[in-house]
Amino acid sequence: MTGVVLVARRELNTRLRTRSFVVGTLVILLVLAGYLLLQATLIRGANTAKVGLAGQTTAIATQLREAAQTVGEHVETVPVASAEQGERQVRDGDLDVLVHGSAADLRVVVKSELDQQLRAVLNGIAQQQVLNAKLVEADQDPAEVMREVGAAQVQLTELEPRDADSGQRLAIGLVIVFLLFFGIQAYGGMVAQGVVEEKASRVVEILLSTLRPWELMLGKVIGLGLVGLVQLVILAAAGLAMATGSGALTLSGVAIGTVVWGLLWYLLGFFLYAMVYAAAGSLVSRQEDTASVVTPVSLTLMAGFVVGFNVLIQDANSTGAQVLSLVPVFSPILMPGRIAAGVAAGWEVALALVLTVVFGALLTWVSGRVYRNAVLHTGSRMRLRAALRLGR
């Protein structure tokens, strides 16, 4: 393994020190930080309404805030001197809503549209005031009556309780699916590009004078795979810290477990695809021909990403999702997302791991044969069938 280690170390040291790796990682981190900041700002802004109260309606400020909180809305109440002044503030954007009139006859002013949940809260307050007045007329204690009314609740039985954190689990799964797709495609493409560069510059002839073809191929795949792993760890760690700090992520334990599974599946998926990328790159001798041989591999990986993304959004626990997550070419992308969503059974994960390892070993043997027979070929593109036939 000495030759493999030397090639892997060369690739690792060369790629980690390149400006493109450092700048690319920093750009992705900045984009991620900006996205999380934007999301946190939008979430806070979407759930907060600034409501001006004029006249008698100032008395319902506490009731309005408490009622809004029960439906997931955050309301900030502001006393306003007059309805006219409040309307000007609404028109200028200083207030989202103006409420004036009496508690039983609320008048609401908005610039364009009133949030439906806030409308229901205000209607409930007005109806409560009318009911209280009628109960007083009937010589009934409104507080006692409302306690009795509030005690009447439906008895709910949930046959399949919904996980309250399912939405956040799904988001974590989608993020890890994207990161795995990005890492495997980007660094798998680098493997093919590196093979073609070495052939075009004739460096491969010098390297193969002291190394066997499988040593050069395996060393390149391992080295670039470790570079991708380093970047993935940096992005995952920084993303977890920023998401937790911004309040966008509360399931830190689930996220950490997903990252660990994601790293394992990245190694398996990258090794599986990178071997094929290396074999595909060995079929051509010019950079301009690289796209023609790596496109089928990239399309297969893209299909796994698109299928995985859509299946997770629709139903991660469907029969289709279970079957596709066991297919080795889809498993590295789809299975980590299902694990994050909490719907992957232990036997499914174990079976997917075994199938991926076995299929990866088979692809490694085939890819190694193609690479050995085609890596010294120059000139026009070598046919895959010819590369497989040689050396029999």
What does it look like?
The chain has helices at residues 2-16, 19-46, 61-70, 83-92, 116-137, 142-151, 166-200, 203-207, 213-246, 252-281, 290-315, 319-324, 331-341, 346-374, 384-389, and strands spanning 48-54, 74-80, 97-102, 105-110. Strand 3 (97-102) and strand 4 (105-110) form a beta hairpin. 71% of the residues lie in helices and 7% in strands. The protein has 15 helices and four strands. It is an alpha/beta fold. It has two domains: 48-145, 3-Layer(aba) Sandwich (D-Maltodextrin-Binding Protein, domain 2); 165-389, no CATH class. The longest helix has 35 residues, at 166-200.
Percentage of residues assigned to helices: over 70%
Tell me the total number of β-strands: 4
Could you list the spans in which at least 5 consecutive residues all have pLDDT below 50? none
What gap, in angstroms, lies between the N and C termini? 25 Å
Q: What characteristic shape results from the CA principal axes?
A: elongated
Number of helices, counting only DSSP H or I runs of 4 residues or more: 15
**What structural class do you assign from the helix and strand content?**
alpha/beta
Strand content: 5-15%
Strand order of the largest sheet: 2-1-3-4
Gyration radius over CA: 31 Å
Most strands sheet: 4 strands, mixed
Helix and strand element order? HHEHEHEEHHHHHHHHHHH
Mean pLDDT: 81
How many domains, in number, for the residues? 2
List the main descriptive attributes of the protein structure presented here.
392 residues; D-Maltodextrin-Binding Protein, domain 2; alpha/beta; single chain; four-stranded mixed sheet; 2 domains
